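Schema walk-through. Below, the input block comes first and the output block second. Nothing else is stored per chain. Lengths vary across the set, and this one has 479 residues.
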Amino acid sequence: MGTFGKTSIGVSPFSDTPTEKIGTNYQMANVVDQRLKSIWIYCSSIGSNIKVAAYSSPSQTGAPTSLAWGSGEFTPAVGWNEIVIPEASRPPLTASAWYWLGFKVAGISTVFRYDDGAANSQKTRGESYSNAWSDPFGTPTSGSAQFSIYGEYEVAAQTYTQTVTETMGLSDSIVTARILTKAVSETMGLSDSIAKQTKFGKVVSETMGLSDSITPAWVTAQEVSESMAMNDRIGISVNDDPSPSDRPDYTLPVSIEAVQIESLPINVVAQTIGSLSIKIVGQVGNVDVNIAAQAGNVNVNIEAQTVDITILTPSGHKAVIGSGFLTRKYYHENVAGAQASPTTLIDVDGEGRLENIAAEIYQTGGTVAGTHEVAFNIYVDGESSPSLIMPLLAICYLGGNKAMWEWSNSAKNPEPYTVNPDGGVTYISNADGLARARWFLFWLPKVEFTTHIKVVMTYPVGDSGGWSSWVCVEYGFYP
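--- output ---
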């Protein structure tokens, strides 16, 4: 596996209209038997959908020719975006050949990156975004932009053959696709003879008008049942016998290609497993994985656009990830409070997560140290004291305290502030001094609860002034 193209982020921004396709010629590595797995593209700002494609090209400055693969429409995110090519559509790549990697965009609000490079390596051709990718490319114009886009390649699928020659009064030759290459010679009318060069053994049962069973002794057993007069059906069960201490370690690759598999149970029992890699491509109803081990890491790479995953651990805690993650609930209300009069925002039973709190808060009278002393108090699973207290000033710190610093030192009605993904103060409006500043903010506490959650808003102590707030609390229950 490797890449070709521009894997660094260009300095210059670029936006385009939905009337053309544009890209750069890049050279494939000098590696044989490869195919294009995916195309990566960098976006620094998002506003509209895009499409990507790869065309063959005769040279670095040559005009692209035939279409290798073109994507449909998708919505990118800020940063690097991988567009994975479906397994059956991955085109073969020629070692050291040139390929045009480029894109079309639905609107000018999506911004890409590039650096100036080799003259005439950039190729542009008029083509409506709504149209399918043309094949061939067409006559382009040229430039020197090298866009931040690259291809990722992988080893192309290989097919090996296994030839079985059998003498049964007639001469039969059966050729089936296998990962390993072996030659089996059997004489059924005489005493059976089998010679196999393999690291682990097999029990083979074959029905060919007669019934014959050949069972040589091997380190491990792989059972294969084949019906030669009908379509082959193969069931594989592998059990490592760890009792002899002198048996060497081995690797067991298993590859299954089929139009449809009704059920594929895999049970591996071993004293020690170095690594277990399973890749499933296709439409799958359910994937159940049961792991019984003393320790280890479970790495899951999900390429599906829609997936729901339930994870159960011995601790009894459950994590559910996917489109049905939470049954979401909202609390949204105007809150009027006074000094020493806490306001309960939510007080509910169940198992779930406290997701988000957003608010506009200001003081209507009195004098206090400041609105920034208002706080959110989180009580989890029946706690008598809050396990988490978050004053507005602490939320401001999530954005580097820039909002309050600039407001209190110079600016009235400053520009909205940048916040981090966990929250921050987005705006402070002009008012009569810092004590009456109107604060706009949000915070993502992401607090898990098992039986109960309560959120209480408290106000500064030492003032009889009133408060007015608009608060939205987002939370949800696990299904």
